[in-house]
Amino acid sequence: MNTELEKSITSLNFEEAIAELEEIIEKLESQESDLTLEEAVELYKRGILLSQHCNQILEKAQQEIKILTKNQNGELEEISFVEE
Amino acid sequence: MVMNRQIFTIEQVNNYVKSLMDNDPLLQDLWIRGEISNFKRHSSGHMYFTLKDNQARIKCVFFKYYGESLNFIPSDGMSVLVRGNISLYSKDGQYQLYVRYMEKDGIGELYAAFETLKNKLREEGLFRQEYKKPLPAYPKRIAIITSHTGAAVHDVIKVISKRNPTVDILIIPVMVQGEYAKDQISAAINYANTREDIDILIVGRGGGSIEELWAFNEEKVARAIFSSRIPVISAVGHETDFTIADLVADVRAATPSAAGEIAVTEISNIYETLNILNRRLQDSITHKLKDLDNYLNNLSNSYVLKYPERWFAAYDQRLDYAMEKIRANMTNVMSTKSDRFVRAVSYLEILNPLSIMMRGFSIVTDIEKGDIIRSIDQLHENMKVKIHLTDGNATCNITSKEKEPANEY
Questions:
Q1: In terms of domains, do B57 and B176 share one?
Q2: Entry pTM
Q3: I need a labelling partner for B337 at 20 to 30 A (CA). Which of B134, B267, B318, B370 fits?
Q4: Residues A65, A80: contact at Cβ < 8 Å?
Q5: Is residue B23 a part of any domain in this protein?
């Protein structure tokens, strides 16, 4: 449980983070689960961090619109796309 | 010269020829192949042109109400198949083809090729539902494989940016029609699959004629889509007809704009989803804590912990009860036996002749015979009898006897 919590949340992308958040909620909501109090609290803490991380991803994201081109040396290059 | 001539007007002649043509069944419905020249579209919407081949030419008219079914703009030099009837325009004395339908030459072959490829790929299983990959719910980067100048790229960017301005877009420009289109489109799909940062591929173009869309009916493109690890949305702007690319793609969008809508969830919905998840997280931990609290309460309120002596009392009571029962049983057995004994003893008492004699009775026996004397008739005078008493006996002589009068009862 601890190693899982220590796993860096900031390295997760949105899809991974929201998937893990859903998983945690299902564990906490489950009637059958025999979580100890400590385990439940640890899961909850991680859930909060994941949820914050998801919000941050959305708020900080700057949209990139790029087009793939070849430069003078014939190498692929991504440059900002400006509509003609 | 015999003057027996019948003179016709030009109109009469033309009308006569026209009636011959109009009554000929073959001329009512025929297909002609040729190349368009001198094409003119009149302001009325009617189209006039000449159809020619190496040997000959024929004038054609394509009236507006038939021309509305056209899915391309005819122009000089175009090879076409036309269908119509032949009649005479009497004003000019010219016969012409009245066109009712026109298609580009070779379209028939294209359709046949399309059907053949479709059947082949279907048999191979390329269209099967089990191979369709689900789209990721929250793509971070979407690649668009299309012409960078067309309306399609503009439409997709507009829709995606409006719905979710956090999703990155990478345009991989390709030719979407012409000789090199199939190679460029398939190469772009393969290239995208070498990258790890692309979540969805949108492959398509705006609407067009069947030849313009043809690259999306090519086997090479179909196979590139099928082998793509990244989910592919096909977006060929043609609402009614399916291309092969549409059939192979994981998801088919009717237009490039629709592809943008399918690929990207609106950001307000994503925030809403996050809010709901947050609420559920709070509720779940609250519930969990409440459950644990209740559990503890239940434990500390449990009978055993609260009244341990009562737990023993029950056993105590059972023990008492058992002892009681044993005791009662024993007493019962004892008293029944002792009652019987007492009763037996008292019977014996009653039967003991000695005890009767104690009350003053005595027994008289015949000395000679030893019989107990029960009646006066057993006695006679000078007879010797013995009187038995509890504490001894005596021998007596009967001196007289007197019989009681007979008992009247």
A1: no
A2: 0.61
A3: B318
A4: yes
A5: yes
Residue B387 CA to its chain's centroid (Å): 120
Do B285 and B389 fall into the same domain? no
CB-CB under 8 Å, A65 with B292: no
B95-130 pLDDT, tens digit per residue, is: 999 999 998 888 777 888 889 999 999 999 999 999
Quick one: B87 and B160 in the same domain? no
Of chain A residues 1-60, which have a CB less than 8 A from chain B? 13-15, 18, 21-22, 24-25, 28-29, 35, 37, 40-41, 44, 47-48, 51, 54-55, 57-58
Residues B138, B182: one domain?
yes
pLDDT at A6: 46
* Nearest-angstrom CA–CA distance, B82 and B102: 4
β-strands B251-253, B232-236 pairing: parallel
If phi > 0 it is left, if psi is from -120 to 50 it is alpha, else beta; for residue B89 that is beta
Closest to B99 measured CA to CA, from B110, B79, B83, B113? B83
CB-CB neighbours of B44 under 10 Å? 8
Subunit contact A18:B169, Cβ cutoff 8 A? no
CB contact under 8 A, B154 and A67: no
Q: Does B90 lie in the same domain as B123?
A: no
Q: Is residue B147 part of a domain?
A: yes
Domain boundary, last residue among B77, B104, B131: B104
Provide the residue type at B364 as one letter: V
- Do residue B192 and residue B245 come from a single domain? yes
Domain endpoint, select from B104, B137, B170: B104
Q: Which domain holds residue B360?
A: 355-397
- Helix H or strand E encompassing B281: helix B267-300
The Cα–Cα gap between A61 and B167 comes to 8
- List b or e across B240-264, with b for residues whose CB sees 16 or more CB atoms inside 10 angstroms: eebbbbbbbbbbbbbbbbbbbbbbb
Place of tokens 């082949």: B120
In a domain, B409, yes or no: no
Residue at token pair 């409006």: B162
Which distant-in-sequence residues (6+ apart) come within 8 Å of B171 by Cβ?
A: A65, A66, A67, A68, A81, B143, B144, B146, B148, B153
